[in-house]
Amino acid sequence: MSTTTLTRSDPAGRSGDRVFSAAALGAGVLILAVLFGVALFLILQALPVAGADPAEITGGEGFAAYIFPIVVGTVIAAAIALLLATPLGIGVALFISHYAPRRLAMTFGYVVDLLAAIPSVVYGAWGYAVLAPRLATGYGWLAENLGWIPIFAGPASQTGKTILTAGIVLAVMVLPIITSLSREIFLQTPTLHEEAALAMGATRLEMIRMAVLPFARNGIISAAMLGLGRALGETMAVALVLSGGALTASLIQSGNQTIAAEIALNFPEAFGLRLSELIAAGLVLFVITLVVNIIARWIIGRHKEFSGAN
User: Fold this and answer.
1) DSSP readout, 152-212?
2) What average pLDDT does the structure give for the chain?
3) Of 120, 107, 127, 303, residue with least CA distance to 218
4) Which terminus of the chain is less hemmed in, N or C, by CB atoms within 10 Å?
5) Pair (66, 199) in one structural domain
6) Are residues 265 and 291 in the same domain?
7) Among 239, 270, 262, which residue's Cα sits nearest to residue 45?
8) What is the domain-level CATH number for residue 191?
9) DSSP state of 96
10) Which of 258, 309, 265, 225 is nearest to 71 (CA)?
11) In this predicted model, what pLDDT tens digit does every residue of 142-162 receive, in sequence order?
12) For residue 155, is the peptide bond before it cis, meaning its omega torsion is within 30 degrees of 0?
């Protein structure tokens, strides 16, 4: 009786597998098609810039001279965000997963998830109205006492609208992403590995260092790369906080700009060659994001066979 039942249900099971497999394949192909379509659109719309007279490009020195400062500004802002948010996010995730009492951990988890749901324009308004004026005084102190360091060279911005402020706002924005993903990875650490480390006399910190962090290494890298992608493409928060200007090595001077903010601020009034310039800038941002993801996958692939908890 049971053998007959299994035999009769088997074709239906195989049919369901085939449907699911086809649906998964279709979803993958659709993603690739959309990605290819976006890339093709950007390339076609940016072609006029390639054949244009350099004097006609914004700045009068060609597209490379125009795009280089905002690429550097984009990378600097994203790097500041990642350097600030990654260690803090990992620390908060470890506190939630391994230190906080259950009720407190649940409360912290809800707060982190709530931070991820706040619109970027709200972060930008907070950075513009609250954070930047309060940081302006600190920037003056940095210029006076540490001005010999190029990144703190004066004159400091009087409004606080600098690339460092933009990086701090971006760090607050990507913090929930890194924290949430890291927390879930930490919670997946095999309990037997943690108990084995503790049984050998390790303290809780040593157990985390020997069992949890090695196991979660790939997940932490993935979380950081997702946060970096958000920071690279963020528009409104940076546009509200950053006072655009010429490229400068100092993080506390007015100046610098990011690609996303440059497009957002100028796209509505752009037409003709100027529109192609902005689309070409978007293509550059597309390539940067693609390269970042490729590098992240390469880093993860190098450590794929060893998680530290195998």
Assistant:
1) G-SSPPSS--SHHHHHHHHHHHHHHHHHHHHHHHHHTS-HHHHHHHHHTT--HHHHIIIII
2) 83
3) 303
4) N
5) yes
6) yes
7) 270
8) 1.10.3720.10
9) I
10) 258
11) 888 888 888 887 788 888 888
12) yes
